[in-house]
Design goal:
By secondary structure, this protein is an alpha+beta fold. The chain contains 2 helices and 5 strands, in the order E-E-H-E-H-E-E. Helix 1 runs parallel beside helix 2. It has a 5-stranded mixed beta sheet, covered by helices on one side. The longest helix has 18 residues.
């Protein structure tokens, strides 16, 4: 339990799925990049890292929710980065505009559900 009184984890397994908490894009020194493209790429890298720690890849994602500050600003750039980060991957995707995120300067947060490998579920 954290100091704030609630539990938090990067990801949680349930049955054949991995539920990933929202990931934002930060630099190695913990700052949000000023350039949207860099921040979006860092967010996908952070999500990929959480997935990898739990035996999954971006290819195992079946549902993605992206929260965007100032939606629909930067959506073309976001979609280009998503296409490079998740080429050929078909998933359910919902984009939601928000007034702000929990980290200063963040433009996007990615929340995902992945099928655990060898779970026998159909990814398509």
């Amino acid at each position: 339990m954290s100091e704030t009184g609630f539990s938090f984890c990067e990801a949680r397994r349930a049955n054949n799925f991995l539920f990933c908490s929202g990931q934002i894009g930060l630099t190695a020194d913990g700052k949000a990049p000023e350039q949207p493209e860099d921040q979006f790429a860092a967010a996908f890298a952070a999500l990929a890292d959480v997935l990898q720690k739990n035996g999954c890849t971006l290819g195992d994602v079946v549902d993605l929710t992206s929260f965007h500050v100032g939606y629909p600003a930067h959506m073309e750039t976001f979609m280009q980065v998503m296409g490079r980060s998740m080429p050929g991957i078909e998933m359910a995707w919902t984009a939601i505009g928000v007034a702000g995120l929990g980290y200063p300067g963040s433009l996007v947060e990615l929340k995902a559900v992945a099928v655990l490998p060898n779970a026998g579920a159909d990814h398509g």
